[in-house]
Structures are given as structure tokens and as C-alpha cells.
Design brief:
By secondary structure, this protein is an alpha+beta fold. Helices cover 17% and strands 42% of the residues. Strand 19 and strand 20 form a beta hairpin.
């Protein structure tokens, strides 16, 4: 499903979690027959029964448990085994048999019930009545477990117990009832003025993907000519939405063809959408995607990524389902990345690159404000549907694609979807499958990108170019840094771009492990410029932007927080800016009274004609609060803004130096006339030598002395920066902290005395610590 501007609440239902861990594995449901009357729109109630064809998975199981949320159970019976008693605590039905059913032998259990179905506390998910329409959204963003079949039928409500469905819905004859699968029968009862619809889903799905929608719907039917069969397409909308539906879904067939070619044949009985009165997105019910009506009626091109995010779930999430909520990135991260794939194969490469560029920039600058820093898995169950899972998940899929290259990646994805079709997978199973299928050990990749928080950062340290006959041997030296992590990534594959004077580019892949690496490439030309990851194929802690200009112009590099004003040019120039969201290197030689701000730094690279005059603005942001914070907020306090300087170096062989620049405190930017290629960073005059507004009593460091594992504990919630500095003032480690405690691994430091510096909104304070 796609979450739109939803504030995720952290609410845990301990009873449901207990039930999920202890009860669900005792039964295996093969088939549900859901038989409901949904015609009480004024009372907002449903009534009927569900027959579960199930078996116990172990011998001597005489008590089983089903989920049913806030509905009243009328009776429970079975023709196969006597039901001795049952109880319902409003969430869990406990069913006691007179004798234990035979393990692994299916039997029918019939549950009659009625009541007013519920919605999730967050507002996202559950069963909704809206005027004379009713529908479900199969996941609850707050409730645990998130599966929300239980709001309208008794079930084994988890990701792994998949079953087939017969759905029988009776409603007023002016209405239509829609469900997953194929409509096989319609019965009209003239005496009651009601019609009964029977839908059959012949493939197995988990409970959260089953659906129902009831109302005065108009049916838009067509046929998609798939790669191996004709597939019905059914879109159910409000009666006056016909023209808008046709225009909004005009690229549906094209998208289906792309997905089938990339991921394999469409695996379900039909393709379907149903419009519902819901303002927060859509839900990927199998063959019957529930989508907010307002997202369709605004016309073509507005919300197409939402339509085709949900459609892609029919491979990622519906066909192969995450084994638990902790692995939700396998569903949502992949579907979110399919938005980029849709852009690329339907709208064009440039559109896709811009879309991914903007998306990853938001991951680096916004996701941590919403979620903090987490690995993709295991992800906290109280925030499953988070930006980390969706958006960082998509960035990791993008990186995986380019790590393997397209041919290997898409072939492996098709094989994975085929191997685990109609089943579940964990991240570890996915990793091991890729390793076995591709012959590439994926352990280092998954350890860094999936199982570790934060991001790696890659940059070119230096290059060495040597003529070799008619060719050139170019040795590229690279360096790895870390954003909010303490583990270096191994088995890296980073694309290096070699640009000619005419701006044409050849690329090679550089492989290395650890903090530094190098590789020599033989090229048939002498490169005018060597760049790291020009096309942003690796979603590390950088965002870059490049432009070719041939006239006077103002260029806003929005995602790198730079802007360029070209005032004179004869010919063409290529200018690339990169915003590096890691601390810049410290001074090679300390400058008295000057401290590098460890927030980020910029890199400017160019090929320019002799007659080229331009200025560059570097923008920073130290305003906001904990939810809208600028990147520099933890590093630069209000009183520091009068002491800021811009420092520059051509490359890592030089020391930083303060350069002339126009400083606008109000606009939070420095402007450099006739800028040079190289690195730029912020620095504070007087550094940490000023009077601390925080006090040492504001935090504690323990144990002290320490063997290297150190905790910094705050008396209250803290949002800021923690640094470890040696006695010469050199920053050895920095961490952005949001919470009441931070753990630091200092085992790599030599024995001696160090300073732990804490910098927050109220100032700076420090404590000494001894490392043994």
C-alpha cells in the first residue's frame, strides 16, 4: 500500500502480539468461504458467516485460536469435530474441541458473527462505511499484527498462512459487490430486493490481501493481451467517473507489458481497481486494488506512480510476501522502486533519473527526521510503514540493481519470484537465493545495505594518469566514509566515470573493500575529468547534480544546496556539484581557533572554457526543529552563525584554508566569485573553545575509564551531535543523536585521554574519558 502524509502512531497490542507468536502456527487454513450481508449502511454493520477449511499442524491440539476484532460471535460449529466451547475476548476466539482433530487432516469450521467492523487507530486500514458504499483496506498501520482480515472475517491473520477464497456478498440490488478473484455467479432475489455476488479466488493469498467493496459502481471492462494469455481488466468506479477513469489509466496496458517483461507473467486471475472514498492512498488487494477515488478523478499523469506502485505489488508482496512485518521492505521497498522502473520504461530514462535523484535526496535529508536511523530489517514493528521501509528500501533496491547490472538483476528477480511464488520470503532467504542463483556472494552487500543502519559514502581520493603507448593508464584511488554507522562496507562496486573534453563519458566499475582502495583502468583517451558515480547508481550518502551550459544563466542545484550564476562564457562548460552528507576530513595541519563543522561538505567538478566567469552559492540550514530540522541544526547554534567561515581545498593533498566569500547570515549561504573546482566546507571560528551553554552535568559518559565501549547518557531527550576529539582538537568520530542515549564503539582508538563533545540546541559541553 502507499502511505500519503500519514503520521505513524506507535501503538502495540500486546495480546495480539502474544497470539501472533504462540497461536498462529497451530493451524493451517486452506480455504475461506466468506458469506456476508452488507446492506446495513445506516447502522454500519455486517452479518453472516465464514467457513474455514483448515487443519491442525500438530497432534493433540484440542484448542485453536482465530482472530476476530470487535465483532460478535453468534455460534461456532463443525460437522467433523464437536466444538465443546468457545470464548471471544474481542480480539481472539478461543475454540475448544471435545477431541483433538487429526493433525494435517482438513476439516470445516463454521463461524457465525455480526457487528460494526473497525478501522485502525491511525485511520489507515480496516473496514469503512461511506454513505452507501462500504469497503476494506487490508492493513492497519498501527494495530499489531498489521494484517487486517480480522476486521471482517475470522481468520489466521498473518503473512504466512495463505489460502484460497470464496466470497459471497449480499447487498441491495442497486449495488455491486466486488472482491478478489473471478465473479462466477450473481443471484437476484426479487422478494428482498437484494443481489448476491459470488467471487472465487483460486490462488492462495494471506488474509490482508483479500478484499470487498460494495456500492453503486459502474464497471469498466477491457482485456489486456498479456505475454501468454488474455487477462480481463476490471475497473469499478462511481457512475460519473467513466471518462476520468479512461484517461487516468491510459498507460495501464503499457505498464503491464513492462512488468511482465521484467518480472514474469502476471500471476492472478484478473487485473482490477476499485475506487473508494479514501484520501490516504491505496491498497494492493489481489486483482482488486482499492484506491482513493480522488487519486483517479484528477486526470492523467497526476497519480500514476500510485497506480503502478500498487500494481507492482502483484509481484512484490502479493506473489511473494514478506514472512513478517520486520521484512516489510521486501514488499514496500520493492514496490516503491517500481515507481522508478515505471518512470524509466514508460516515461523515459531522464524522467526516471530525476525521480530517483529526488527520492534519494529526500531519504538522506528527511527520512532520518521521521524515523531515526535503522537497518531495513529487522524494523521496529510499531513503525513498519515508514519512510525507511518504503523510501530507503527503494534506494537499496536501486543499488542492488546496479551492483548486479541489469541483465543479472532482472533475471535473478524473475527467478526469485518464480521460486517463492505464492509463498513467503525473509531477507536472509532472498540474500541466499541471490548468492546461489548469481554465483556472487551477496553477504557483504546485505550486511551493509540491509542489515546495518545509516549509509556508506564513497568518493575519489585522487587519480594518477600515465601515458601507455596510444592508451592511458588511469589509477583511481577511492575512500569510504560512514553516515550514522560504524561498519565499513566490503566488496563494493562503484562506477567511475571518465569524461572527455567533449563531455562524452565512458564508465568502469571499481571494486574494493574497506576504507580505501584503488584500481587501474586502461583507456583509449586521456580523461579530462574523473568522477565517482556520475549517474547515481549507488545510493550512498551523496547527492549530485550536473549541467552543461553554453550561455549566461542561473542554475539552481536544488538537491545539492548550491546555485550557480554564469555571467560570461565562450563555448560550453560542464559543472557538477555533489553534496556529501558526511563529515569532511579534518585539517592536515590545525588552524588555531578554527573548527570544521562536521555536517557535510560540497565537491565542485567541471570542464570549462578559458572564458568562463561564474559564482557559486553554498547554502546551509541550521534552523527548524526536531521534525523540520535543517541539516546543520545539531552543529551550528544561533550564536555560532556570526562565527562561520567557508573553507576550501583543491583536493585531499591540500590543507583546508579560509577563502573570501560573501556571507549572508539571513539567507544562510556563502557566495564565492570565480569559484574553483574542489571541496568546500563550513568552519566555526573559535571552534569548541568558547563558553559552553550546555554543562557537563547535562550528560554522563560511562564506563570511565573504558575498554572502548562507551555510552553517552542524557538526562532528557537530546537532538544533536556527539563527537570524540583527541587532545589536539582533531575530530575522531561524530554521531548524530536523537534520543536519550548513544553507544560509541571506540575500541579502535589507542589508549589515552580523549574528549567527548556534545553539541545541541543549547550549546556545547564536554567531558574527558580515558581509553585503556
Amino acid at each position: 500500500m502507499n502511505r500519503l502524509f500519514l503520521i505513524i502512531l506507535a501503538v502495540l497490542l500486546s495480546l495480539s502480539v502474544f497470539a501472533q507468536h504462540d497461536y498462529e502456527g497451530l493451524i493451517d487454513v486452506r480455504h475461506y468461504t466468506i458469506n456476508l450481508d452488507i446492506s446495513d449502511f445506516s447502522g454500519r454493520t455486517i452479518s453472516g458467516n465464514t467457513v474455514l477449511n483448515l487443519s491442525t499442524t500438530e497432534e493433540n491440539v484440542s484448542t485453536i485460536y482465530l482472530y476476530l476484532l470487535h465483532l460478535t460471535v453468534d455460534s461456532i460449529g463443525s460437522n467433523d469435530y464437536e466444538v465443546a466451547s468457545f470464548s471471544h475476548n474481542d480480539s481472539i476466539i478461543t475454540i475448544n474441541f471435545a477431541s483433538a482433530p487429526v493433525a494435517n487432516q482438513p476439516f470445516d469450521l463454521d463461524v457465525y458473527y455480526h457487528g460494526a467492523p473497525q478501522t485502525d487507530p491511525s485511520g489507515w486500514g480496516g473496514f469503512y462505511f461511506s454513505g452507501n458504499y462500504a469497503f476494506n483496506m487490508g492493513c492497519g498501520f498501527d494495530d499489531v499484527p498489521h494484517n487486517y482480515g480480522r476486521v471482517w472475517f475470522p481468520c489466521n491473520d498473518n503473512f504466512t498462512d495463505k489460502a484460497k477464497y470464496t466470497t459471497i456478498i449480499t447487498t441491495q440490488s442497486e449495488n455491486t459487490a466486488i472482491s478478489s478473484g473471478e465473479l462466477v455467479d450473481t443471484q437476484v432475489d426479487n422478494e428482498t430486493g437484494k443481489t448476491t455476488y459470488r467471487w472465487e479466488l483460486t490462488q492462495e493469498i494471506p488474509t490482508y490481501l483479500q478484499s470487498v467493496a460494495v456500492g453503486a459502481y459502474y464497471h469498466h471492462h477491457s482485456v489486456y493481451h498479456g505475454v501468454s494469455r488474455d487477462i480481463p481488466v476490471d475497473i469499478y468506479g462511481y457512475p460519473n467517473d467513466s471518462a476520468k477513469i479512461a484517461s487516468s489509466f491510459y498507460r495501464l496496458d503499457t505498464t503491464l507489458r513492462v512488468y511482465e517483461n521484467l518480472f514474469g507473467e502476471y500471476p492472478w486471475q484478473r487485473i482490477g481497481y476499485v475506487l473508494v472514498n479514501f484520501s490516504s492512498g491505496a491498497m494492493e488487494h489481489v486483482g482488486n486494488i482499492s484506491i482513493g477515488r480522488s487519486f483517479v478523478t484528477q486526470g492523467p499523469g497526476v497519480y500514476e506512480t500510485l497506480y503502478y506502485h500498487e500494481l507492482s505489488h502483484h509481484w512484490f508482496g502479493d506473489l511473494v510476501t514478506c514472512a513478517s512485518a520486520e521484512d516489510m521492505w521486501l514488499n514496500e521497498g520493492w514496490a516503491t522502486y517500481c515507481e522508478t522502473i515505471w518512470k524509466e520504461f514508460v516515461c523515459g530514462h531522464d524522467a526516471a533519473r530525476e525521480y530517483r535523484h529526488n527520492a534519494h535526496s529526500n531519504v538522506l535529508t528527511q527520512t532520518y527526521l521521521k524515523d531515526g536511523y535503522h537497518p531495513l530489517t529487522p524494523f521496529p514493528v510499531d513503525n513498519t510503514y515508514s519512510s525507511t521501509v518504503y523510501d530507503k528500501g527503494a534506494s537499496v533496491v536501486h543499488t542492488l540493481r546496479n551492483y548486479l547490472d541489469d541483465e543479472v538483476f532482472f533475471e535473478a528477480v524473475r527467478a526469485y519470484l518464480n521460486e517463492y511464488s505464492y509463498r513467503n520470503a525473509t531477507s536472509y532467504q532472498f540474500r541466499d537465493f541471490l548468492t546461489q542463483h548469481t554465483g556472487i556472494d551477496m553477504t557483504p552487500f546485505f550486511e551493509s545495505w540491509v542489515f546495518t543502519k545509516g549509509f556508506p559514502h564513497f568518493s575519489i581520493d585522487s587519480t594518477d594518469i600515465v601515458a601507455n603507448g596510444g592508451n592511458y593508464d588511469v589509477t583511481v584511488y577511492v575512500k569510504q566514509k560512514m553516515l550514522e554507522r560504524e561498519m565499513l562496507t566490503n566488496d563494493n562496486r562503484i562506477e567511475i566515470a571518465f569524461m572527455k573534453p567533449d563531455f562524452s563519458v565512458e564508465t568502469r566499475v571499481l571494486e574494493f573493500s574497506g576504507e580505501t582502495g584503488s584500481q587501474t583502468f586502461t583507456l583509449p583517451f586521456e580523461p579530462a575529468l574523473v568522477m565517482c558515480d556520475l549517474y547515481e547508481r549507488t545510493a550512498d550518502a551523496t547527492v549530485d547534480d550536473a549541467v552543461i551550459v553554453d550561455t549566461t544563466v542561473t542554475i539552481n542545484f536544488l538537491k545539492t544546496d548550491c546555485s550557480m550564476v554564469v555571467s560570461d562564457i565562450a563555448g560550453e562548460a560542464m559543472v557538477r556539484t555533489t553534496c556529501n552528507y558526511v563529515a569532511p576530513d579534518d585539517f592536515l595541519e590545525p588552524i588555531q581557533g578554527l573548527q570544521i563543522v562536521p555536517s557535510r561538505y560540497w565537491l565542485v567538478e567541471s570542464i570549462r572554457p578559458n572564458n568562463f566567469t561564474a559564482s557559486m552559492k553554498f547554502k546551509f540550514n541550521c534552523t527548524g526543529n526536531s521534525t523540520t530540522a535543517g541539516w546543520e541544526l545539531p552543529y551550528i547554534q544561533s550564536s555560532d552563525r556570526d562565527s562561520l567561515s567557508l573553507v576550501y581545498r583543491r583536493d585531499r593533498s591540500e590543507n583546508w584554508r579560509v577563502i573570501p566569500a560573501q556571507y549572508s547570515k539571513a539567507m544562510q549561504r556563502f557566495t564565492v566569485d570565480n569559484f574553483a573546482d574542489g571541496e568546500y566546507a563550513l568552519a566555526i571560528r573559535n571552534g569548541y573553545s568558547g563558553v559552553s551553554r550546555l554543562t557537563a552535568d547535562s550528560f554522563s559518559v560511562y564506563p570511565n575509564p573504558s575498554e572502548g565501549q562507551v555510552w553517552v547518557s542524557f538526562g532528557a531527550a537530546f537532538n544533536g551531535d556527539v563527537q570524540v576529539v583527541d587532545m589536539n582538537g582533531k575530530v575522531l568520530m561524530h554521531r548524530r543523536v536523537k534520543g536519550t542515549e548513544a553507544e560509541l564503539n571506540l575500541k579502535h582508538l589507542s589508549a589515552g585521554t580523549y574528549i567527548v563533545v556534545v553539541k545541541g540546541k543549547s550549546g556545547t559541553a564536554s567531558r574527558k574519558i580515558e581509553i585503556r
